[in-house]
Design goal:
- The chain has 415 residues and is of the alpha/beta class.
- It is built from 14 helices and 15 strands.
- α8 crosses α12.
């Protein structure tokens, strides 16, 4: 079968890091293993060298809120020329801003099908950035929905994220393509755990809790801190590790100090050393992830790859596949509920391993598995698109002939 020529697009990219960016990278890397794939992204604000297994094509960009960059492809003639000459079989946009709009325009001009994936709860994003102005939020939602409404195939990363997209007004068909991970359970697990123990003096420490992600308040980090502040009054034999960087990290550290948990919390910053990150997953007993913002956090799949169970918010997109007490734990979206669940789990430490093993067996999914599913879907989208184009062409021909017939009949009647 002839290789597909694929273009993934996203409105921001490294050195900025977030969940959607990582997903776009993994999509490009793994689809490029068997097909031909490039990733179109905005230029970085400072000198940055891409070192990927696939080609990264960058376009003119401008600054955006919260340290992001936004691609402006229409102002980059060289980029546009390159894109128009590639002869792509399919375009896949991972964001609905200017890069997404360009994908729709390029697809229409050259008759290329466009896939658009919803990765983010944009309504929450807009409320935060636009200070809860309903008018501005509605304008922004209407703006991004033009991409999803014009795309040939729309995807999300969980069933509950379908509901989010519906709430924005989307009425078409939605495909659910779940995220994966590159991690596998390592053969040198003990060695990696030792690295973490030695770095933080954790040898023999019970109840090690972990958060991995952007250090931003909208991830519900306050729930973790307030919950642990309650837990320490019952059992203070624990350590909390925060892995990640973000624009709120200084404020988070300050709050931890204010509530008196500085001796219980460890902040590692962002970790690019993958084996070291694996060490943290392996060393932890429980992943605390109270975010209701994330649609399908890669962190949860990474944890499952290391047989680490998670505590999440019941009913959230993040916790869609969790069953309380089976392959994870669920609590309400508040510190009291989280603390009660943590205290309950700490009383039966054997649950950590038991639930973690089930999480590994039921939640793990590799990016290779995702890529196989994605490429198969691409081929379905392309086939359906070609069929639709042929039908439209036949309709045009029919209408043209019908107009000629009606004109001839009118002329004959006039005579």
């Amino acid at each position: 079968m002839e290789k597909l020529k694929i273009c993934q697009l996203i409105d921001t990219y490294y050195p900025v890091v977030d969940g959607a960016i990582n997903v776009a990278k993994f999509y490009a890397h793994h689809t490029n293993q068997k097909e031909n794939c490039i990733l179109a992204v905005p230029k970085a604000s400072k000198k940055y060298t891409d070192n990927e297994t696939f080609e990264v094509v960058r376009c003119f960009s401008m600054s955006a809120p919260e340290s992001y960059r936004c691609g402006v492809p229409e102002l980059d003639a060289k980029f546009k020329s390159r894109m128009e000459q590639e002869g792509f079989d399919i375009l896949h946009t991972h964001s609905p801003y200017l890069m997404g709009r360009y994908a729709i325009k390029l697809g229409k001009k050259y008759k290329i099908p466009v896939v658009a994936t919803l990765h983010t709860q944009y309504h929450q994003d807009f409320e935060r950035v636009m200070h809860n102005s309903k008018t501005l939020v509605n304008v922004a939602i209407n703006y991004i929905m033009k991409v999803y409404n014009k795309a040939d195939s729309v995807w999300t990363v969980s069933n509950r994220s379908c509901e989010v997209l519906r709430s924005y007004g989307y009425k078409g068909k939605i495909e659910v393509i779940r995220n994966g991970t590159d991690f596998v359970y390592p053969e040198n697990a003990e060695e990696l755990v030792k690295r973490v123990n030695d770095a933080h003096g954790l040898e023999g420490q019970k109840n090690v809790f972990l958060f991995v992600g952007r250090m931003c308040w909208y991830k519900n980090l306050k729930i973790i801190i307030d919950a642990l502040n309650i837990v320490k009054n019952t059992n203070d034999d624990f350590k909390m590790i925060f892995v990640g960087g973000g624009f709120d990290i200084d404020d988070v550290k300050k709050y931890v100090e204010e509530v008196g948990l500085s001796d219980k919390c460890i902040f590692t910053g962002a970790i690019k050393d993958k084996p070291l990150l694996q060490g943290y997953y392996l060393r932890a007993d429980l992943l605390l992830f109270p975010s209701t913002f994330d649609m399908a956090p890669v962190t949860a799949v990474e944890a499952a790859a290391h047989k680490l169970c998670a505590l999440m918010v019941e009913g959230s997109c993040s916790a869609e596949l969790l069953k309380d007490g089976v392959n994870g734990f669920l609590a309400e979206e508040n510190a009291e509920s989280f603390s009660a669940k943590i205290i309950e789990i700490m009383k039966t430490p054997e649950l950590y391993k038991k639930i973690g093993d089930v999480a590994g067996a039921t939640l793990y999914r590799s990016w290779e598995m995702v890529a196989e599913e994605v490429v198969a879907k691409y081929r379905e989208v392309i086939t359906a698109y070609k069929r639709k184009q042929k039908a439209l062409e036949r309709l045009k021909i029919y209408r043209r002939l019908k107009r000629k017939q009606l004109k001839a009949e009118a002329e004959a009647e006039a005579k």
